[in-house]
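Weekly modeling sync, notes
Attendees: S.R. (lead), two postdocs, one rotation student

Agenda item 3: backlog of single-chain predictions. S.R. asked that every request posted to the team notebook include the full sequence so nobody has to chase files. The rotation student volunteered to paste the first one in as an example of the format we agreed on. Action items at the bottom.

Example entry:
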Amino acid sequence: MSVTRPERLSEVDEAAATVNEVEGEIREFVRRDISIFRRPRQGDNGEAAAENINALIQRVSAQSVGEIERVMGELGQVRDMLHTEGDRVQREIAGYASLSQAAMTSMKIIADSLAQWRPNTPEARRG
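Predicted structure, as returned to the notebook:
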């Protein structure tokens, strides 16, 4: 009895193969970066090791620093937009206050004008 292997791997097998491949790449990456931390050989000095460590730290932190700078830029844009909207709202409120004052003045003028048309009877003066 012979066991035949299907031509195409199942999805689970494909996923496992992909995971193994990625893990292998990660291991290789770590091995390369760890080699920086190995003890210096004869003739090497501490400055070379410090430079290697600095380079590693810069590579690791570069993406985080870039992301922080991007977020800071976006926050600056939001701040500017909020200032602009705050100024607009203040103008709207000032316009509303002016309109309200004009409406109150108009109502007072209308009330005074209507008062002149009232008859001068004691009942009208009470009401």
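Discussion: group reviewed the output briefly. The chain has a mean pLDDT of 78.
Action items: rotation student to repeat for the remaining queue; S.R. to check formatting next week.
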